[in-house]
Amino acid sequence: MADALLELNLSHASASVINNNGLSPVVLVCEHASDYIPEALGDLGLAKADRQSHAVWDIGARELSRLLSRKLDAALIEGCISRLVYDCNRPPNVPSAFPAQSERIVVPGNEGLDAAARHERSEAVYVPFRTTVQSLLEQRQRGSASRPIVVTVHSFAPIYHGMQRSVEIGILHDDDPDLALAMMNNADRLSGRVIALNEPYAQSDGVTHSLVIYGVANGLPNVMLEVRNDLLTNETEIEAMAEDLLALLLPALRAMAAPAQEKDNKCPAN
Q1: For residue 154, is it within any domain?
Q2: What's the confidence (pLDDT) of residue 146?
Q3: Which of 163, 235, 239, 264 counts the highest number of beta carbons within 10 A?
């Protein structure tokens, strides 16, 4: 284990920043963008058939995030390590940060991790990832008149524990629902899509950690986007999904900005 973590620390960053100087106030975060597992961890003992499964990464989320980054001219922070090594959308004190099983998929390399091993993985993967995101947000807050807007991008499997999921786009929030609700107000623009609030997951499922630490804790608008991964299988589908997400997001951002602008434009009382 120590050799594997040495490899993580020395040869493979846990986060990558794309379009750091993008002009949009939106900051995209894709925690589960990578399927990379260090060779020294032996694929965590996964069965060969499971090595490219959704358990390892969010299929299609990286490509979707990069396209959104280009269309918005927004900064994007990608995770560069598989979530099975460490799930950067989980705090270090929960078992799901190092899942020993993901739905039906057993992860032998995560079974029986002791406190020292969990701490080492957290230090190698989670801490630098979190530092990268937080530093970019702080930089944006210092250098811009507009607040950064945190948008995390995920995908989910169409079948979970044998049940078909009908939802195509999930819009999730934690304690600050404003941006999520503003996006849901535009759902009727996409009559052909099945869009739902806090599905297929919700705050109670422990999936909004990033919203809390990057958005809520910093007083920044934030939302989590979940897209069904069978709708992200090729460039055409990803392009269509990106346009649909922007049809929800951009009017929501304008609507949220309007009250502040109206207040700024009011003449002071005599």
Answers
A1: yes
A2: 80
A3: 239
